[in-house]
Amino acid sequence: MKISELASATDVGVPTLKYYLREGVLHAGEVRSRTQASYDDSHVERVRLVRALTGVGGLSIAAVRRVLDVISDPGVGPTDVMAAAAASLYEPEPEPEVPEVRRAQRGASKGDDSSARELVDDLGWHIYPDDPALTALDEAWAACSDAGIGLDADRMRRYATSMHGVAETDVSSVPADPAGAVRQVVLGTVLVDPVLLSLRRLAQQDVAVRAGAISPPPTG
Q: Could you tell me which residues belong to the region Disordered (predicted)?
């Protein structure tokens, strides 16, 4: 198909398709002449994946390129694809230098408070030392401390144990094909997070009712 037909098949404008080609997130078509190339179903699939990653996934083109580089490596298995896709969700955003320094000082002032690294080590989890989720957890944990919300190590362990069960469900549903794995990890995380949050709030209500902390809902 021509690029105009690819645009119609994916509902993506020709200028955007040409941008994808320039940025390397869409592979080149088969050259037919000096000014024309032919595209096929693999291009349709790739465009839809890029749109999903940049749209619902909220990833930058640079992050999408990194994920697609992993997909394109024939020696990479589903686990490596999952790791690359998960890491892309923590793409760092530019920040002014001063807030960054203040944040680092806040983390240093926690004293004997437990860190994310200590928590996962205590749980026996197999976590890469440079995983950005560790930094994200440390910052979120510190923010709770700053706000006066006590998240001691025991409470965090209980949270972590519950989330490990969620992770087992997540990983067991990841398909074997690389593109499908990326969709499941990135889009699944983005779209399922609100589901998990809603379930948490509903579960809190049920636990509170069973404990007699709030009145039960009306029946019938």
A: 90-115
